[in-house]
Every structure is written in structure tokens, then in C-alpha cells.
Amino acid sequence: MLNRRSFVRGICGSLPLLAVRAAPVEPPVIWDVHTHLTSVPGATPEDRMAEIVRYLDRMGIERVMLSLGYPLEYDPSPARLREENDQVLRAIKSRPDRAYGFVYLNPNHLQASLDEFDRSVRDGPMVGVKLLAAKRCNAPELDPIAERAAAMKAPILQHEWLKTDGNEPGESTPYDLVELAGRHPGVNFICGHTGGNWELGIRAIRPARNVCAGLAGSNPTAGFVEMAVRELGAERIVYGSDAWGRSFASQLGKVMGAEIPESARRLILGGNLRRILTPILQAKGYRA
Q1: Which phi and psi (to 5°) does residue 20 adopt?
Q2: What is the pTM (predicted TM-score) of this model?
Q3: Are 142 and 107 in contact (CB under 8 A)?
Q4: 138/260 Cα distance (integer angstroms)
Q5: Which fold, 28-284?
Q6: Phi and psi for 275 in degrees, rounded to 5?
Q7: By C-alpha distance, which of 243, 196, 199 is closest to 215?
Q8: Rounded CA Rg of the chain
Q9: Longest dimension (CA), the chain
Q10: Is-contact 155 184, C-beta < 8 A?
Q11: Residue 274 to residue 211: CA distance in whole angstroms
Q12: What is d(CA 197, CA 264) in angstroms, rounded to the nearest whole number?
């Protein structure tokens, strides 16, 4: 028969277990692969970086991968390309604890782009490549850029869409990226928007094991992340916002609200990107 002493002893004996169960869970480490200086308020790159950090602090984001300057050009001349990269270099120099840089390249000016890669990544502080919409990424002009990235273990973040009314001239699709990735299996590619039409984009990149689905920029609809986890595996999904084109909050909502295991959520929010970047960060002496 259970008496009062036995009851109290049983309750007290369970207190340590209750304390363990009630221990707070560490929040996930969040790294955003897809952030731009473009459209951020501020007179200088340093001012704009300070504005970005205000929002990073509010949203609990540890680091962003920063690319593209202002005013943004989709087919920049070599001089303009250098100016935009200089703006990003200034921004990341002002807050090296919160941002890494991805160099903006234009395959329509191949030699200038290779020179920019060497200046900004090989000999500079940047850790990845950003390709926009000057030329579809399945073009042969992309091969020397991918080879340069492979040598440095630098990932390539590719802008692409599957627009209902048709892409712009030179604007890539996920199918184009799969072609490029097939020619360069040693490069980690990030499909920046997964087509926007993600049900098609996820299926398009599924065969390419060196292509990750980027979550940035599209509407924060339910089901995107769940389908990507189901079709690709959580290890092939990378969180990004496309801020300032989109907000950090709306894009984080895709991941925070997804019905997926917590282990998958942590990989998507930061674990996968940190793994992808670890070789180049270590080579440069940065914290991985």
C-alpha cells in the first residue's frame, strides 16, 4: 500500500528527470546563403551592413552570405562588376563577424570574371560565387568559372526561375543548372530559388547530387520544405532569404513552420551551409 512517505519519496526522486526534460533547447544556428546589399537603406556599404545586422539580431540569424551591390545591373560591364564587388568587400570588412562575401560574376565578360574571382576569392576574403541573369548557366562560358570555384572549394549560388510567363533572356532555370552541375561534379551548387515553382524545381534538381535546393525568394507557402525533404533529403536544402527582395521573417517562416523533424530543420537553417563552406573557410583561417 502506498503511504505518504513513499509518495513523497517518489515525487522527489523524479525531480531531476523533470528538470532534464524542462531544460531549454538551444536555438538553431542560422546562416542565410542569399542576402544582398541591393535596396538596403543606407548611404554607404557600411551603413547598409549596419542596417542588415539590426535585422539579423532581431531574427536570430548569425551570419549572411552577402552579394550584389547597388544600383544592381543584370549584365554589368567589367568596371561595374568590380564596383559592385567592392561595395560587398567594404560591407563584409565592416562586420566580418556577421557576413561572408560571394563574388558577383558575369559570364558575358569571362576574363574579367575570372580576374574578379582571383581578386575577391583566391586572393581576397570572399568564400563563394554569385551568378545572376546575364547568361543561362548551361552555357560553356560558365565552365572556366566552375573550374576556378572547384579549385578553391567555393560554392556557386545560381539565380534561376521557372516563371509562368517565361524567363528573361539570359535567366537560368533549374534544368540549366543541372546541366552545368553534371559537367562539374566537384562543385557545390545552390539553386537559389528552386525555380520559384518549387514543385517543378525540386523534381528538376533531384538527380543532381551536387545541387542543393535554395529556399529564397518565393512566396512562403506551406509544403515547399516538406516536399524538398521528402524528395531530396534534408542534407540537400539550404535556407536563404533573398533579402532585401524578401524579408528574413517570411522566408524563415517556411522552415520554422514546416512539419519536419527538428534535426532536419537545423541542417536546413545552418548545418548544411556550414558543411559546404567548411573547406574554404578552413583554408582561409575562418571559423567554420
Answers
A1: -65, -45
A2: 0.91
A3: yes
A4: 33
A5: TIM Barrel (3.20.20)
A6: -65, -45
A7: 196
A8: 21
A9: 87
A10: no
A11: 15
A12: 22
